[in-house]
């Protein structure tokens, strides 16, 4: 009897060869599916409704000067507020005072558990009802920034806490042995190192906030306050065509793709620095 080669599977094919055939079959099925979609799709109708150049041309420059600008402003304000509040909540989460830890834990769990849409509704409707005659500073920018910042702070607080705990405890002990107070040691030694660690996840959070700013449409923004999603939806309703929504999506990609690439580069640099 002739012995089968080591690693050979029943039928005389090696495991490597069977894996190659399996991958080839999967690639073939995928290619066939793409080809079938390409051949069966009504491209002329799709182009007319989703990529109508005449409709897209009329969106400029307002979609940039109004929609894209407002999206960037709402995102920046929400990120700034979220970062500041998240730092405070993270320090409370690490505090030795039990009430601070309880408050931080409840805040994080509540605002991470609630849908962002409910937060926007609460900010736009609940705050004026709870405090009659009170206006959130900044108008639409303040409302959007507050809603985004409250939720972002809950996620950033956990990210910052993890970054602080990733710094070796010996760093704080060495600073205290040199006569530094705990607050000064945290400010001068621990936090700078922690933020270098958490820059990639904070960049990812910025990408998420950019997309979440689309919920601003539920606050009833005026024409000059519209962000990309509301801008595209309003124009799509006016012209009876979905091209404005597609163009708005492309504008989102102009923001999110560079930020995503930046986050990946920062993560790769951080991995190289840890070797």
Automatic annotation (TrEMBL):
Family annotation (Gene3D superfamilies): MetI-like (1.10.3720.10)
All copies of the ABC transmembrane type-1 domain together span 68-263
Q: Which residues cross the membrane?
A: 21-41, 72-92, 113-131, 243-263
Q: Where in the cell is it found?
A: Cell membrane
**InterPro entries in the record:** AA_ABC_transptr_permease_3TM, ArtM/GltK/GlnP/TcyL/YhdX-like, MetI-like, MetI-like_sf
A Pfam family assignment = BPD_transp_1
Keywords carried by this UniProt record: Amino-acid transport, Cell membrane, Membrane, Transmembrane, Transmembrane helix, Transport
Give a Gene Ontology cellular component term annotated to this protein: ATP-binding cassette (ABC) transporter complex
Q: How does it sit in the membrane?
A: Multi-pass membrane protein
Q: Which family does it belong to?
A: Belongs to the binding-protein-dependent transport system permease family.
Name of this protein: Amino acid ABC transporter permease
The opening ranks of the lineage are: Bacteria, Bacillati, Actinomycetota, Actinomycetes, Streptosporangiales
């Amino acid at each position: 009897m002739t012995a089968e080669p080591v690693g050979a599977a029943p039928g005389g094919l090696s495991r490597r060869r069977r894996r190659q055939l399996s991958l080839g079959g999967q690639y073939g099925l995928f290619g066939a599916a793409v080809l079938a979609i390409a051949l069966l799709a009504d491209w002329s109708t799709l182009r007319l409704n989703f990529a109508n150049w005449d409709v897209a041309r009329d969106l400029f420059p307002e979609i940039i000067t109004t929609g894209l600008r407002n999206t960037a402003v709402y995102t920046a304000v929400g990120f700034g507020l979220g970062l500041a509040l998240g730092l405070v909540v993270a320090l409370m989460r690490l505090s030795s005072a039990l009430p601070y830890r309880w408050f931080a834990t409840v805040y994080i769990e509540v605002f991470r558990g609630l849908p962002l849409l409910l937060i926007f509704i609460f900010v736009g409707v609940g705050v004026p009802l709870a405090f009659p005659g009170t206006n959130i500073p900044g108008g639409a920018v303040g409302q959007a920034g507050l809603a985004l910042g409250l939720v972002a702070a809950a996620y950033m607080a956990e990210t910052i806490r993890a970054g602080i705990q990733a710094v070796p405890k010996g760093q704080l002990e060495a600073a205290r042995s040199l006569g530094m107070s705990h607050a000064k040691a945290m400010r001068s030694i621990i936090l700078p190192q922690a933020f270098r660690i958490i820059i990639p996840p904070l960049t990812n959070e910025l990408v998420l906030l950019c997309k979440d700013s689309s919920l601003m449409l539920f606050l009833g923004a005026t024409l000059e306050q519209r962000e990309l999603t509301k801008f595209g939806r309003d124009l799509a309703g006016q012209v009876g065509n979905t091209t404005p929504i597609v163009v708005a999506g492309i504008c989102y990609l102009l923001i999110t793709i560079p930020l995503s690439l930046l986050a990946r580069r920062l993560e790769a640099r951080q991995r190289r620095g840890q070797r």
